[in-house]
Amino acid sequence: MSEILLQIDGKEVKAAEGMTILEAAQSVGVTIPTLCHLEKLTPYGACRICTVEVDIGGRTSLFPSCLYPVAEGLVVRTRSDRVDRIRKMILEWQLAHAPDSEQLKDLAQIYGADKDRFEKEPAFCILCGLCVRYCAEVKKKYAVGFNDRGPRREIAFVVEVASKECWNCKECFPLCPTSYAQAAYVLTEALAFPGRSSEPLPAE
Amino acid sequence: MPRINSPAELEKFRKDILSKRDPKKPCIAVCTGTGCLALGASKVVAAIKEEIKKQGLESKVKVEADIRETGCPGFCERGPLLVIYPEEICYLQVQPEDAKEIISQTILAGNVVDRLLYTGPKPDEKIVQESEIPFYKNQKRLLIGNNIRMDPKSIEDYLAAGGYRALVKALCENTPEQVLELVKKAELRGRGGAGFPAGKKWEFTRNSQDETKYVVVNADEGDPGAFMDRALLEGNPHSVLEGLLIGAYAIGANEGFIYVRQEYPLAVENATIAIRQAEESGFLGKNILGSGFDFNVHLHQGAGAFVCGEETALLMSLEGKPGEPNQKPPYPAVKGLWGKPTNINNVETWANVPLIINKGAEFFTSIGTEKSKGTKIFSLVGKVNNTGLVEVPMGITLKDIIYEIGGGIPGGKKFKAVQTGGPSGGCIPEEHLDIKVDFDELAKVGAIMGSGGMIVMDEDTCMVDVAKYFLNFLTDESCGKCAPCREGIRQMLKILTNISKGKGKEGDVELLQEMAEITRDASLCALGGSAPNPVLSTIRYFRGEYEAHINEGKCPAFVCKDLISFYIDPEKCTACMICLRKCPADAIIGGKKQIHVIDQEKCTNCGTCYEVCPTRFAAIRRLSGEPVPPPIPEEERTIVGASKK
Amino acid sequence: MDNDQIDRIIDKHQNDASSLIQILLEIQREHRWLPKAVIERVREKLDVPLSRIQHIVTFYKAFSLIPKGRHEIHVCTGTACHVRGAPRLLDSVQDLTGIKPGETDMDLKFSLETVGCVGCCALGPVMVVDGEYYGKMAPAKSEKVLINYD
Fold this sequence. Notes:
The structure holds three protein chains of three kinds.
Chain A: E1 3-8, E2 11-16, H1 21-27, E3 51-56, E4 59-64, E5 75-77, H2 81-95, H3 102-111, H4 130-137, E6 144-147, E7 154-157, H5 159-165, H6 180-192
Helix pairs in contact in A: 2-3
Chain B: H1 7-19, E1 27-31, H2 34-38, H3 41-54, E2 69-70, E3 82-85, E4 89-91, H4 99-108, E5 118-119, E6 126-127, H5 134-137, H6 155-160, H7 165-173, H8 176-185, H9 198-207, E7 214-219, H10 228-235, H11 237-251, E8 255-260, H12 265-281, E9 296-301, H13 311-318, E10 342-346, H14 347-359, H15 361-365, E11 375-382, E12 388-393, H16 398-405, E13 415-420, E14 426-429, H17 439-444, E15 453-458, H18 463-477, H19 483-500, H20 508-522, H21 526-530, H22 532-552, E16 564-568, H23 578-582, E17 588-591, E18 594-598, H24 608-612, E19 620-624
Parallel strand pairs in B: 1-2, 7-8, 7-10, 8-9, 11-15
Antiparallel strand pairs in B: 1-3, 3-4, 5-6, 11-12, 13-14, 13-15, 16-19, 17-18
Chain C: H1 3-12, H2 20-31, H3 36-46, H4 50-59, E1 71-76, H5 79-83, H6 86-97, E2 110-115, E3 127-129, E4 132-134, H7 141-146
Parallel strand pairs in C: 1-2
Antiparallel strand pairs in C: 1-3, 3-4
Helix pairs in contact in C: 1-3
């Protein structure tokens, strides 16, 4: 595996071929924020928080560092006005859905994001996909998946599978940045798992 | 249809077909593309067939191939239409009742039926020949001109017109590298929207290290308002197949896919038939024409997702997955369908390939501008007299397209803007009508070529509503995977909806621009990346309209329902009762000789009264941004005698 | 739809999981909607995760998880149709049928959907009922068209 030389935030970095910018940055102690990334999983590129500036071919472009492969002579900036503006706005949009998420709030502090900037639409899920992808790639059970598209996109526990598998696992719960996965599971269990819907609702 | 195993056999078969066709025999070609079918073309066809029988002409006129479905020639405004060969007499807006006269007068007696001819430019000027009609004359119809001459379900029609000659040239007289060089030399740029040099993309795919490669025809054509690919695939599917075959040979792919949106059932049907015919005749399969080259193609239908027009999403759909785009790089030319190098091009791009092989690169580069060669088919629609498909050389001005070919704006209304590039494009105002249409010139004014949709807008179009319309469309179509697109479009739509309802705030335009930057820069794919374009271009050229909505609660074009009111002018109302009867909300008070008054509480702003009030009275006024005058007192509403009180 | 009919369609596509969407499209066309039992049969035969099928049938607009009416109305809301007044046509169709896009009426007579574009842009506004195209549809005309369908 050949060695690749690139520059990250002014630092010379030696990376191995096949590494992503995110991995190369981590190897020299440069932290790039992520919301949908987990080492065990294939990089997804959905949250876009890890977006960085990359100088290539005489131009500056923006790419998600979790997916972009290192190449000889790349110049990368993990912070800049443009990058910070992107992170700030994405955080503000996500905080409208999950204002109490600790992970979001921590990042909001760094980037000056105002959690009250946009009208709250508490769906709680920020669609990072960690639960879905973990169940698919690591557990290979596919007990939770995505439904629909656009702003209506949501995660959904597949009743036929979840009712058999999840009681013994629940490994996706701690991965969730907003605790929505756990809430969705409990709700699905209460409303839709076989044998449960016939139970009377608790008295007021 | 026999199996053809060599170029010699092909030419012999072609000669056979031509020898059985008498060019002097009258032939009635009726357009039965989806558009004309919607206007009743199948009834016209049936009526003509009936008349031919009735008047005892079955032996005199070639019935089968020539009175059935031909492809769409593009003059959709005047459909149903037909052309009678060999004179090329073109009849427009033909109704079933006209069949009798067409047969007895034109076919039998050799007279033209005046009322079915094109009229113009002078009011008493009639034009007989199809090619003389100004709509067609000012175009350069290299691709679409063939449609009216062929039954798309007949491979023999395609062969009679010289079809698959280019395939022979490519497969049997050139190496793959030579074919690739030719396409590069022709400087063909992709016609799907991005305008990337096709030859270069083919080369990347060819050079990728993998034995297995794929080629794909992108016939998803999701841009609302664009239907060029429908006409090409529906009307001349073999030309697309031939182009795909040649490309596959040059790239080194042995398998291909045609991805057609399922909303085009006729294109699906005709392409399926063409594939079957090509397989039967040996143009698809093993050892094509004895060249040693194998190629197979499969047709896949879309399932109602605009995002699947994006190449990586299209590939996901081909793999049987939800159409969620993937990050580029890696590009499909390197890692595409099932991880293999894949070359995807638009229908029109592929259709240009046989033309380039047959006529040569110099012919192709002699047309167009310095950086945009060849022709482009546009769907000219909206507020324009001659709506339909137009094929023009790159470099023609917008003005010529809209006025020379399009015939200008109907109803004497004023031109406002032309929208190109669909939801990824922008609106171009009057000040730029003289620009030469090519990839780079359009980009300079904030629009894009896109797939070819060209929507003309007049003074009655609200540009805030246009931006809102596109964002609404994209909200429905975004895959939702990445936040900048999913959240950005949602938030921008919210602001635009508020503005259109008179709830806009100071700073909204700046906030829209701020969000637009993030969505444009950080989205995963081009759907999100180009979503801000309609918003940004309407702000750029029509900021005044935004400000009127926000600061004055006024919609200058009288479109945004919440900002308009209707008022009956008591000076002009003659109590004719027409609007009263037609009002769907029963919101008009009045009666015979009682001046009508609109009950503003009940009024839903539908605009029906405005449309039905006879023009000689023109008693209904549209108001926006000003208060509605109070209704005149009841005592004053009676009309006394012939005049008003 | 019985399992034999479903299996026939799946076999036609060589049991290939990448033809999942084509298979579901064919089933949708024949059966008019995709009940749970049908989806389960497809899942079983193709051996794909149920979550993937569920995502596909909710992601793509062509699929319906509720029974469609005897007559399917599609109103085009493409740009060209929009500037020619498609919203008002849609309003009138909604009023006449009593349903909104995505819905079926209680008698299972009509289903209503909007379509991004059907490629008849020169004839806008366009409405398609059971595959039959109606162009230059003024809102007032919609009653005359729909009254012919029972």
